[in-house]
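Annotated sample (chain length 134).
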Amino acid sequence: MNNNALDIVLEDFAAKGIEAAVTLRDGASLFGRIKRYDGYVILLEGNPEVMVYRHSILKFSEKTAEAVKPAPKPAEQPARPRRPSEPRRQSSAPRRQPPRSAPVSAREEPAKEPGSLSPMGEAMLKWLKSQQGK
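Output written by the structure step:
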């Protein structure tokens, strides 16, 4: 197996039976001992037993009291305060509304015979017929 940094840590944790804290990219935290691993997944022994894709891991560490705290969810993070130098994005001018189009029944459309095609449709049919002959 490739000996990259994560493989070395996983091998050490598995050999010593150290309980690991795994933080995923979505902010979820998982805990358990390393039962098995390969180049794609890690099997954590715990209650319940969990299989984690290695590409979804954000942080891997030894379980400590600090690691037990879950990461804050994006909605729980405080909003960035507005700087005094940033202008407010309000204007006193009323917003312009786009012009309303006439109702469908009032629009004038050229009358088409049933089965007649637009120039684009006729060109497409001509091209299709030329392709069938090849």
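Annotation: The longest helix spans residues 119-132.
Annotation: The longest strand covers residues 29-37.
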